[in-house]
Amino acid sequence: MSCLNDSGSSDADEWASKTIELIRSVQNNLFASAVVAGKYFITYHDKHETAMPGQSGYGWTLEKLNTPGQSHKMFRMTASVFYSLHDLLVSTYGLKSSLHMNSIESLAIFLVVCGHGWSNSALHGVFKRSGETISRKFDEVLTCVVAMCQDYIRPIDPNFYTTHTRITGDRRMMPYFKDCIGALDGTHISATPSQHDFIRYIGRTGKGTQNVLAIVDFDLRFTHASIGQPGSMHDTSVLFHALEHDHDTFPHPPVGMLTYLYVEC
User: Fold this and answer.
1) Given phi > 0 = left and psi -120 to 50 = alpha, else beta, which region is 157?
2) Would the pTM of this model clear 0.70, i.e. be above it?
């Protein structure tokens, strides 16, 4: 009897040990399954609602154009001038709308950058567009504006056969400036050149700048602009560079006439 009791007790202990081991294994599997299920639910089902912009870039543009004073503040021109410029760029110089962006919004991005110098990230916050889209649309409008400048930034009379009435009608200038065809001056604007070129662009202010040489006639219309020379370049070098590289477009008077009244401001 004693042997039988010992054998039965041993079997019961073994069974109890296996049962406990099985229960622990099931518990571990259930815990692991719960963790996996929880991660799956959080990842694929428990999502926050997508943040929708309160106003699109196109809507922001129309709001500024329709609000008195805001168009000039943001785009540096009145709404009527904005629409006239837009229509001209679309009809003559190839500005187009895309599937996801109207050409009006593209022009607004370009004018905001030129007028305020906003960064790409700042434009993203207003127009709700990706950085790549903003850069691409800016380049598209810039290409159209450069093409337009070839028709507008030029002398009305490239041969300068006549003396301007501002000269002939002023006894202080006539006949001393009868052969003068315009005025030119230069200025510096901020630039961000590549690192290996940065020293060449350091101007008198100690910052990276580029030279801009502009020429106007006596009606204060721009007839030529030379842009992009390093800020460290002397004014005379900027002038000679423009004469050499922009020979076909630089306004040249007839031989024997005084060229320009040079103004230093």
Assistant:
1) beta
2) no
